[in-house]
Amino acid sequence: MAAAMPLALLVLLLLGPGGWCLAEPPRDSLREELVITPLPSGDVAATFQFRTRWDSELQRKGDTDHYFLRYAVLPREVVCTENLTPWKKLLPCSSKAGLSVLLKADRLFHTSYHSQAVHIRPVCRNARCTSISWELRQTLSVVFDAFITGQGKKDWSLFRMFSRTLTEPCPLASESRVYVDITTYNQDNETLEVHPPPTTTYQDVILGARKTYAIYDLLDTAMINNSRNLNIQLKWKRPPENEAPPVPFLHAQRYVSGYGLQKGELSTLLYNTHPYRAFPVLLLDTVPWYLRLYVHTLTITSKGKENKPSYIHYQPAQDRLQPHLLEMLIQLPANSVTKVSIQFERALLKWTEYTPDPNHGFYVSPSVLSALVPSMVAAKPVDWEESPLFNSLFPVSDGSNYFVRLYTEPLLVNLPTPDFSMPYNVICLTCTVVAVCYGSFYNLLTRTFHIEEPRTGGLAKRLANLIRRARGVPPL
Amino acid sequence: MAAAGAAATDLEVARGRRAALFFAAVAIVLGLPLWWKTTETYRASLPYSQISGLNALQLRLMVPVTVVFTRESVPLDDQEKLPFTVVHEREIPLKYKMKIKCRFQKAYRRALDHEEEALSSGSVQEAEAMLDEPQEQAEGSLTVYVISEHSSLLPQDMMSYIGPKRTAVVRGIMHREAFNIIGRRIVQVAQAMSLTEDVLAAALADHLPEDKWSAEKRRPLKSSLGYEITFSLLNPDPKSHDVHWDIEGAVRRYVQPFLNALSAAGNFSVDSQILYYAMLGVNPRFDSASSSYYLDMHSLPHVINPVESRLGSSAASLYPVLNFLLYVPELAHSPLYIQDKDGAPVATNAFHSPRWGGIMVYNVDSKTYNASVLPVRVEVDMVRVMEVFLAQLRLLFGIAQPQVPPKCLLSGPKSEGLMTWELDRLLWARSVENLATATTTLTSLAQLLGKISNIVIKDDVASEVYKAVAAVQKSAEELASGHLASAFVASQEAVTSSELAFFDPSLLHLLYFPDDQKFAIYIPLFLPMAVPILLSLVKIFLETRKSWRKPEKTD
Fold this sequence. Notes:
The complex is a heterodimer of chains A (476) and B (555).
Chain A: E1 10-13, E2 29-38, E3 44-54, H1 81-89, H2 105-108, E4 113-124, E5 132-144, H3 146-149, E6 156-157, H4 158-162, E7 173-181, E8 192-195, E9 200-206, E10 209-217, H5 221-225, E11 233-236, E12 250-257, E13 263-272, E14 279-287, E15 291-302, E16 305-306, E17 311-315, E18 324-332, E19 336-346, E20 362-364, E21 368-374, E22 401-407, E23 411-413, H6 422-446, H7 459-471
Parallel strand pairs in A: 1-4, 2-7
Antiparallel strand pairs in A: 2-3, 3-5, 4-5, 6-11, 7-10, 8-11, 9-10, 12-13, 13-19, 14-18, 14-21, 15-16, 15-19, 17-18, 20-23, 21-22
Chain B: H1 2-38, H2 48-55, E1 58-69, H3 76-80, E2 84-92, E3 99-110, H4 113-119, H5 124-132, E4 142-147, E5 160-162, E6 167-171, H6 178-193, H7 197-203, H8 214-217, E7 226-235, E8 241-244, H9 247-262, E9 267-276, E10 285-287, E11 292-295, H10 301-311, E12 321-327, E13 336-338, E14 350-353, E15 357-361, H11 367-371, E16 376-379, H12 382-396, E17 408-410, H13 420-451, H14 459-480, H15 484-502, H16 515-554
Parallel strand pairs in B: 1-3, 1-4, 4-6, 5-17, 7-9, 7-12, 8-16, 11-13, 12-15
Antiparallel strand pairs in B: 2-3, 5-6, 10-11, 14-15
Helix pairs in contact in B: 1-16, 2-13, 4-5, 7-13, 9-12, 13-14, 13-15, 14-15
């Protein structure tokens, strides 16, 4: 998963209230946080999350007309600082103060993983949802390969990762915190050391696992005033064992199979590694129209048996107008692999519809998996305003399971690509054939034909006569 | 035997010649046109002659003026002649290919009873209130009331009065040449209220050759179907200033009425934003005498660019954007003043940039720092800000201060901040500008299509061109008959259709197949076919000439 993945700038318009709070917060409040998770391999994952909410009534009516709801996806975009600049402009403190100081493009794009997102959604302001606020959440996750850049050392610091340190909090933020994941190491203080020592720690159940975080609060005046800047460092006292990270309960894989340029098959593998619980998964797939899906070939098998989805919504594609939309609710049995496959035929495009480099292939958007994954540890319901941001994007409604949305990898499919000089070749060949036929025809019709008197002579005749003379037969 | 052979050969030669001639005939008569027809690009027919006719279009702008004479305004025997109509026409000298004529059609008539009554009241405002109610005047038309020379309706030293709507009052005269004298005064007033050379020159500023006044004339935004207005509060120092502004209320109270009055000229959308840490591009200078900072006039052009990258509104808009920035200087640079050419501080502490918007510097009162700790809460006085922004908005829309004739009283502005005749004047100017734009677009499209024969002209492009031409003609006709509202609508249609046609992507489809490449492709066909035909034609021609000469020689 640490492999380079294309940046997916997802503008996710989650409609429908996400949660609620009791106290009336101030207008335009900003909360920002940075979660740093050291991985056993020596990589470091850093996730920024900024939330701006404003209580202006942007949408007068509470109801959304679902007729106007659209799902759009751009399967691939080349990563570039141009993706970061407009994103940074949406932050109230831009990149002048607070956590956003760390957002330095040349470091963020030299990472092994980069994911950037913008979420806009209405949130209920009270329990009965009589009024709503709007929430703008911006998240940015990067994974630094500290092991390689640090010459074999797995220690890291803010300065080493971002080449900046934190100097002052954003004056507009009502909360500005850095969380460092110290879950497996906090029992004994012998494996690692975090510097400066955190003032408080925070414990909660995140995605079904119990986690402990060290908290650095930038608004706490003592935190920065001591040294004018805050450079959080982590030092390993004993090198960590390279244990495999725990496998998540739900993960997925997608690939395209088949040979030739006519037909193929899209397959999605859904893994449920939970030892004893089955759970349903909502699978959303959009396939471009130029892959013509054969819906009768849709097969879903798990553990060798056919698995009938409890709900299917299929909207067929229209050429050049809309893609295929396939949505299914599939029950994943405990500890199983479910394979969803569907065959398709590749369509021929018009010659102006090909992309500039058509032999590279065409990208097919990832499928989206949404699931309530059962949790091993019971979590208490989230208090919307109190809990950290990384825990409240998808709030837990009841403690026994948690919400996960997964995007599979985008696919690259080759389409039958014509030789683009073909029109020229065809014209040239046709012209030549026509010209050759025409030439002989013309010759035949316009030539003057004479009747030649047979004349003595010719090498063959002379030769024949020589032989005839030798044989004593009269010559020809 | 030899004779028979020669005869047969001759027959054969003649047949061959006929066959060759037939080949040539088929290739030229049938082959060439067939090839031409099948490889032709589709080009719908366009009204080229009408488009070139648009260039020589004569615009006649007619302003219908109703002139109402009260009882004692002119001598009695002159009153007997009423009603009648006088036309005052004048060509506006502009260095532009279109001839523009301005025509004031003055319909003289006597006052009706209720008008008499109204005009004999004590003050102009009262009279206006009484006259106002019954009739709704058409856009672009004017009504001028001529009152008696000694009427107390106007102050004694004033000869005329221009009202906030489409009415004006002119003092009459008891003179033999009364109509002539009054006519001249009426034209003066009517010009101030509708069309002057300046208004039209400003409207056509983009199409006229540059002169020294053009910078001033190019200040207003170009005519468009809609406009987007963005108010931004720039707070570069949120650590010291906690700035609040009631922009919603201010827009509702001051901007919206003005835009409602202007709504005939386009669609407007208003939005606002607060930007933190948005700095100006220049460092202000410190003036130790007044212990304040100042920006001099030369540095103002450098102020906008760094800020503009943060504004970001123009990226999401179809229409031109007008930006109004309220800049609260950081604590280290306050108070901040803008200096004019002579080094004196500008009274409003604001400036505007042509076709872009305005910037106002809002200094925080120094008293607020004394008592409290940072950040200081600052409530922006929106009345002061909006006064400046509305004045800039008027300028940027090209609603200049009217040029009032001497001894003329101008009424106070209406509550919307826009007089009805000012709107009319804007519509006149915008109609003329739209017509000029549409004509230019159509002409260059026609030129382009004429020059490049490879461009496909689809039927829908052609229909847009026809629509645009018809709309230009309709608009010109409506202008000539004095129907301003419909003329303006038609001129907008003309611009929309002409731009749609000009920017249609289908025009680009075959642009990358130049003629020389096409012929290179066809050479394998043309060369082997043409060479035998041409050679045999040459041979036949030479033989025929020889056979014609022979008999001559024997004779």
